[in-house]
């Protein structure tokens, strides 16, 4: 697998020798450079300590890759920071780690595959199947040999949350004539409309319709960047609607955020309280 502007440009199945993987990654890096991906005038990955040959002078030898553990941590930090160049920078960093083969260590390589899954979800439209494939590759490396890094579960949860949001119609990736995504347009209006659906369904004691609206509202809030609000609505489903459906939705959000996120810690406590009331 390799990515350019968040899309997979090639794929491989199973385990391939390290030298072939390195060549595969080099091909992807060259494609990314040729596509103009990243910040204009910047070297994609430079902020993460990954260099490439200069385009204005003689070809130079790439600088040695940093400690793979540090590189992967930096790539995840870049993704979480949400900078415009994060997707390409992080994808390049994860690819360099994977190209290092077994030298990177199994846990670090597994985390890198999870990182590439995260990058796939930032494509437009998201590459859900590619993300699932990368999660599967990460879990093949773990294979009960060591504790699964939480980034893998987070990538899996984010993938399925996004798939659910697309299926439910609360996320779309249509473009207008100018080629700009219009998915985010008017999301506040959409959220208010979904809140109204919940209230209307609850008023006539239609629990299934209320839960359907809560589910959609939760997903819309997640992808509007309001994880706290999403957890609140999912917990409302636990207390007022389908307990199990609400619990599963809460757990997906907690997994996507990560076990140590303050919202997860507080949310799990609130879920436990709501479950036993």
Automatic annotation (TrEMBL):
It holds the Pfam family TPR_20. This is Uncharacterized protein.
């Amino acid at each position: 697998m390799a990515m350019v502007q968040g899309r997979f440009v090639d794929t491989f199945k199973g385990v391939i020798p390290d030298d072939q993987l390195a060549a595969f990654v080099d091909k992807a890096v060259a494609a990314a450079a040729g596509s103009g991906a990243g910040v204009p005038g910047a070297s994609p990955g430079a902020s993460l300590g990954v260099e490439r040959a200069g385009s204005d002078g003689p070809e130079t030898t790439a600088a040695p890759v940093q400690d793979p553990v540090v590189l992967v941590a930096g790539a995840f930090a870049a993704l979480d920071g949400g900078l415009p160049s994060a997707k390409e920078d992080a994808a390049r960093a994860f690819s360099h780690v994977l190209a290092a083969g077994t030298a990177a260590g199994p846990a670090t390589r597994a985390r890198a595959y999870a990182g590439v899954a995260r990058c796939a979800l930032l494509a437009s439209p998201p590459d859900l199947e590619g993300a699932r494939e990368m999660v599967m590759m990460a879990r093949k490396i773990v294979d009960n040999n060591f504790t699964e890094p939480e980034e893998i579960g987070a990538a899996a949860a984010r993938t399925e949350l996004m798939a659910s949001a697309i299926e439910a119609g609360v996320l779309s990736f249509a473009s207008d004539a100018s080629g700009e995504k219009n998915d985010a347009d008017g999301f506040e209006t959409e959220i208010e409309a979904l809140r109204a659906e919940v209230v209307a369904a609850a008023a006539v004691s239609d629990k299934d319709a209320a839960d359907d609206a809560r589910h959609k509202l939760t997903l819309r809030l997640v992808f509007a960047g309001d994880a706290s609000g999403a957890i609140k609505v999912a917990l409302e489903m636990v207390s007022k609607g389908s307990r199990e459906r609400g619990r599963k939705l809460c757990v997906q959000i907690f997994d996507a955020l990560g076990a140590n996120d303050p919202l997860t810690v507080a949310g799990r406590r609130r879920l436990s309280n709501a479950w036993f009331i």
